DNA sequence: TTCTTTCATTGACAGTGGAAAATAAGGGCC
DNA sequence: GGCCCTTATTTTCCACTGTCAATGAAAGAA
């Protein structure tokens, strides 16, 4: 532990003791990892059950809530459909979700120490304000304040992809890395970036817009106004549209489109090939610019991952410059519960920071 | 000063006094900036003349050396043509350059406190080793050690674009910004990135490869093996090749190509328009991913900047997503002397760090 | 001259973290 | 079981950083 933190052993003792006394850390033994010689180390482990957290992720039609422990393990997950997208309705649904999860927490006899909320769009985490969410059609909603009043809990609010990235950084595939990217494939194509050990937020609230990198200036038009954005080729809507055009089958959604491709329909498979190519190029662009140690591909689109995996890999290998190709590109299934877990992770983060004072 | 550093006034006093006693800071007065009320502040200023530094930038055919003061102001600049590109020849030329500059420093009666060297390619700054420079055809050259033996000075070695970025961060248009990009246009298209206040180095030595972002998959082939990289459209070689093809005139270099365009030859102007478009898209990609506060466009290519300025601006405005377009894109002429100054900046940086111990 | 405002400095003090010594906990060897 | 040897952990100072509160200084205003 001292080696990892770059501190002396004495400093570790002094830092750890109060945490053990407060019950956040417990001593542990691992007979397996004992050295051949000398006194074995005293292992400590975070006692996850010492405090609970709630994370809420708001999508277009559902609010997803999870109850997690201090180690961000999901204990209970709940989904409630949204009746409307205005702040009042969303807040009411979220409060309902929190109430249910608080009852679960009561059953465990542990207090809930914080609530994290994740919303897509431009979110000012420090102020807890949703500056602009195109998806929910919100502008300057002081969500943290409103949610704190409604629930009585300390609230953190963050952009959903950033929250997911925080969860990966602290508890997922990004642990110990100083630079990595999380790429989410689904309705939109998003990206969370960690550089120098911190999540990139962008000067004006914009960062990680991998979905709007142009991969083909002659490609299909995107809702952002440009042509050939990654999202205009590989987003769910784009895939549905292209599969319809290529096969003539009026598929209703991405699941049906993937079904056609899985059935071996050539036109549909080609759409996924192009999509994989676009995503791979987008990832290569991130790798060429930032040199991350790892790229984690995730999102609902992962359900159809076998359809574009090879194309992502090929396009990445081709477009990555020099050693950037050595970046570890891997997938990780992260369903919506995991996004809510990301929200909880931001709450845990701010709980730890506040306690550290 | 206390407010800026987030420290108490008392801490500033204690930090500043030894620096004044050592002569690195001197008290100053600024009658202009006196407040209406109360005791005016004691201003301090870095005494640039207290220590000198040498920066050397190695290009394909020349070694450029500058002597700077502690404020990184260039006092003397010298150029020596390179006879060959192997480490021995380059080192000999660099040592010659350093000798000349040391004589100049002697004339000023101030000691030279460090030497910085900037080389293109994959450079391990911490170890002072040039891992791989395609341009010089070097592999694993321990340049810092060799140069230290040859000159007797403490040596820092860094990638040339990163060094230029450090100079901008400390002494140029990046002062006070936590995130910005330096884009260099010339023989190659390079990019130095600062995120969270630190220069991005990349996990495998690759970062900022804006030149190899694909802007047109159907575009001309690039030496990296792909098609339609920014560099394959807007690099000097690419421009010369395209101007020749478009006009039939066998221009010898980028200067002649720019001459044709300045004369109003349509084909040549169109080449610059396409180049500007490619650069603008590349910058937009950086802005979409990282949300920098500013982008500084520079490099030898700036000499022809009027030919693509509008196209860069237009392409950026179109391809930037949402508030990313609010990023401040500006130009700054940075001739090769400035790259050498960047090398000196890295030396100053490590001098300050070592002294702080 | 005296008051107000803003800076600068000082000295006491708390917190962090390091070095070195002391202590603890194994295993092997006699 | 005793006696090494090795590695971990803790304790006891001690240095350093930075804060707080008090004091002194410099300027303009009354």
From TrEMBL, chains A, B:
UniProt keywords (A-Z) are: Kinase, Transferase
According to its UniProt entry, this protein's organism is Streptomyces violaceusniger
The family note in this entry says: Belongs to the ROK (NagC/XylR) family.
| Database matches in SUPFAM superfamilies | Actin-like ATPase domain
Does the keyword field hold Cell division? no
Name the domain of life this protein comes from: Bacteria
Which Gene Ontology terms cover its molecular function? kinase activity
From the Swiss-Prot or TrEMBL record, give the protein name: Sugar kinase
> InterPro entries recorded for this chain?
ATPase_NBD, ROK, ROK_cs, WH-like_DNA-bd_sf
Its lineage reads:
Bacteria, Bacillati, Actinomycetota, Actinomycetes, Kitasatosporales
């Amino acid at each position: 532990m001292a080696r990892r933190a770059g501190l002396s052993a004495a400093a570790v003792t002094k830092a750890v003791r109060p945490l053990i006394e407060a019950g956040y850390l417990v001593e542990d033994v691992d007979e397996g990892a004992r050295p051949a010689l000398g006194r074995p180390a005293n292992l400590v482990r975070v006692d996850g059950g010492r405090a609970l957290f709630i994370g809420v992720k708001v999508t277009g039609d559902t609010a997803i809530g999870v109850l997690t422990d201090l180690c961000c393990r999901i204990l209970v997950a709940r989904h409630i459909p949204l009746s409307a997208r205005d702040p009042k309705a969303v807040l009411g649904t979220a409060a309902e979700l929190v109430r249910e999860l608080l009852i679960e927490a009561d059953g465990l006899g542990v207090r809930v120490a914080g609530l994290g909320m994740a919303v897509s769009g431009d979110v000012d985490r420090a102020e807890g304000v949703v500056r602009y969410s195109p998806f929910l059609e919100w502008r300057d909603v002081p969500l943290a304040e409103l949610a704190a009043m409604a629930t009585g809990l300390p609230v953190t609010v963050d952009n959903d992809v950033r929250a997911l990235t925080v969860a990966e950084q602290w508890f997922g595939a990004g642990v110990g890395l100083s630079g990595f990217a999380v790429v989410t494939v689904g309705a939109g194509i998003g990206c969370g970036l960690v550089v120098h050990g911190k999540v990139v937020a962008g000067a004006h609230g914009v960062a990680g817009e991998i979905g709007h990198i142009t991969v083909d200036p002659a490609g299909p038009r995107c809702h952002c106004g440009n042509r050939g954005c990654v999202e205009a080729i590989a987003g769910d809507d784009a895939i549905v549209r292209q599969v319809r055009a290529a096969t003539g089958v009026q598929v209703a959604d991405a699941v049906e489109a993937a079904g056609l491709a899985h059935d071996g329909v050539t036109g549909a498979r080609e759409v996924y090939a192009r999509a994989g190519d676009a995503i791979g190029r987008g990832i290569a662009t991130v790798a060429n610019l930032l040199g991350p140690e790892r790229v984690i591909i995730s999102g609902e689109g992962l359900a159809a991952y076998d359809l574009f995996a090879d194309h992502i890999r090929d396009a990445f290998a081709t477009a990555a410059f020099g050693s950037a190709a050595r970046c570890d590109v891997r997938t990780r299934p992260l369903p919506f519960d995991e996004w809510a877990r990301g929200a909880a992770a931001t709450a845990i983060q701010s709980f730890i920071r506040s306690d550290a004072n």
